């Protein structure tokens, strides 16, 4: 399902030729344009060449490793990143989410699941693009969020957020006085039904808080109301 008339470009970073081609075929079947890259070094060349709507990223890569490449991707802006890895350990998944990945799929993967997750992440990210007439600049205290440029600044500091962190902050700033339950956050940002996976939400909220605190150590922006959810702190 193509989400917009604009061509959607997805970078596929996977050193196994068969898996790379399989992922590219899934992307084409969904109506998007894939670009295969077979090493971290090659992926950097493509990242510098143009803007991307999504990156599918293997962790075990020749040259520049997946973790280092993920750090590099975060510097380019809030691009959805789905890690696809043979590492099944929970701590590895949590580590990559903390590092900035938006999702984590283990190999061997189900083709339909990968297809659905690609659509889901793109749909959520595209919804963040303001429609004509919609307020494009959100502000709370010293935070300014530009929905057209998909940029966030805190005072004079420009924040580097992942796509999920950006979407969570935009959700909270859209209704500064509202308390959002974990189900509200998950279903609004991930676009899927919430089944009580607290860990995923906690990791992204924690990362977002850390980045805000680093830019403004003396101010708290997000508060947790235990048993209720999250809101911007008045």
From TrEMBL:
Pfam families: Response_reg, Trans_reg_C. SMART domains: REC, Trans_reg_C. Residues 135-234 form the OmpR/PhoB-type domain. It comes from Paenibacillus nasutitermitis. One of its GO terms (molecular function) is phosphorelay response regulator activity. Residues 9-122 form the Response regulatory domain. GO terms for cellular component: cytosol; protein-DNA complex. The keyword DNA repair does not apply. Residues 135-234 bind DNA. CDD domains: trans_reg_C. One of its GO terms (biological process) is regulation of DNA-templated transcription. Keywords: DNA-binding, Phosphoprotein, Transcription, Transcription regulation, Two-component regulatory system. The modification 4-aspartylphosphate is found at residue 58. This is DNA-binding response regulator. InterPro entries: CheY-like_superfamily (IPR011006), OmpR/PhoB-type_DNA-bd (IPR001867), Sig_transdc_resp-reg_receiver (IPR001789), WalR-like (IPR039420), WH-like_DNA-bd_sf (IPR036388). Its main location: cytoplasm. It comes from the Bacteria. It is found in: Cytoplasm. The keyword Thylakoid does not apply.
């Amino acid at each position: 399902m193509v989400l917009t008339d604009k061509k959607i470009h997805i970078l596929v970073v996977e050193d196994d030729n068969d898996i790379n081609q399989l992922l590219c075929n899934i992307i084409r079947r969904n109506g998007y344009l894939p670009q295969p890259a077979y090493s971290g070094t090659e992926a950097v060349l493509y990242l510098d060449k143009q803007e991307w709507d999504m990156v599918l990223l293997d962790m075990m890569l020749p040259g520049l490793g997946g973790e280092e490449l993920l750090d590099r991707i975060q510097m380019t802006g809030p691009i959805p990143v789905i890690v696809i890895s043979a590492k099944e350990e929970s701590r590895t998944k949590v580590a990559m989410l903390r590092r900035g990945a938006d999702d984590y799929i283990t190999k061997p993967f189900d083709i339909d699941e990968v297809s659905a997750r690609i659509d889901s992440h793109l749909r959520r990210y595209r919804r963040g693009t303001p429609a004509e007439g919609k307020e494009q600049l959100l502000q709370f205290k010293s935070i300014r969020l530009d929905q057209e440029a998909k940029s966030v600044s805190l005072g004079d500091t420009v924040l580097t957020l992942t796509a999920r962190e950006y979407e969570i902050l935009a959700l909270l700033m859209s209704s500064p006085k509202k308390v959002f339950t974990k189900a509200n956050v998950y279903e609004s940002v991930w676009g899927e039904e919430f089944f009580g996976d607290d860990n995923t939400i906690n990791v992204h909220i924690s990362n977002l808080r850390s980045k805000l605190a680093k830019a403004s150590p003396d101010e708290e922006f997000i508060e947790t109301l235990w048993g209720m959810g999250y809101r911007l702190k008045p």
